[in-house]
Amino acid sequence: MGERPERGLKGLHQAFDEVRFGPSRTLNIRSALPTAADASHRVRNWLRQQQVADAKEVLVVTGRGNNSDDGVPVVKDACVRVFHELRRKNVIVSFSEHTPGSFVIALAPMSALLEAGRRRRDRPPMEAAPSRGQLRAFDQETLARLRSLAERSLDALGVREREQFIEDEMLRLLDVLASSVREGPDRERRLRTAIAAAMRDFD
Q1: Closest CA relative to residue 201, chosen from 93, 113, 104
Q2: Which of 37, 70, 121, 155 is the most exposed place for a label (fewest CB within 10 A)?
Q3: In what order do the strands lie in the sheet with 26-28?
Q4: Which domains does the chain have, with CATH numbers?
């Protein structure tokens, strides 16, 4: 005989979650049994990627922490600290406990991240801000998209003589977007995706 299908409210809730979020908007931390540090790193990067992807609402499964030492849910607590951090940085709007071992996260639009970057720097302590020389490392398509975003941003601020501010605004936007597009394979392609997501918020 085959396995009996899961029954009851738990199975029903899981079925609804699969329809509501799907695999692309669900992160199951619990299944990997990570350390608190690993969970924090993975959740932080994944939520930033989901913001760029304009996901709006996602599900993070942390588990209850029933098997943790002394019954302290260290992974769940670490994830909650990341949620608070990313809310301050305008990556997420809000989060709420969905079940005792999962959270629904409402993501902020990219325009909110750019506005937060206007008010403060958002980078690791040892990471330098982009310089004018670094702009030359990108191809012409990326620079053209970044320039268009800078023009939209300055227009939104009501800057009339924007040409003298374009390069500075491009550098500022690159600085902010770097927090969502870390080093790694295809970074420039991922940067263009982040620029496109920010452009949609100005349309």
Answers
A1: 113
A2: 70
A3: 26-28, 57-61, 102-107, 92-99
A4: 8-107 (3.30.1370.110), 110-202 (no CATH)
User: How far apart, in whole angstroms, are the C-alpha atoms of residue 57 and residue 159?
Assistant: 33
Where do the DSSP E strands lie in the chain?
A: 26-28, 57-61, 92-99, 102-107
Q: Within 13 Å, how many C-alpha atoms sit on residue 60's CB side?
A: 30
For 184-196, what is each residue's pLDDT tens digit?
788 889 899 999 9
- Which residue, 100, 133, 96, is CA-closest to 30? 100
Handedness of CA 144, 148, 153, 154 (dihedral sign): positive
- Distances, alpha carbon 73 to alpha carbons 36, 96, 105, in Å: 9, 17, 19
Give per-residue pLDDT as tens, 37-95: 999 999 999 999 899 888 889 999 998 876 665 667 899 999 999 999 999 989 999 99
Cβ-contact 178, 130 below 8 angstroms: yes
- Predicted TM-score (pTM) of this structure: 0.71
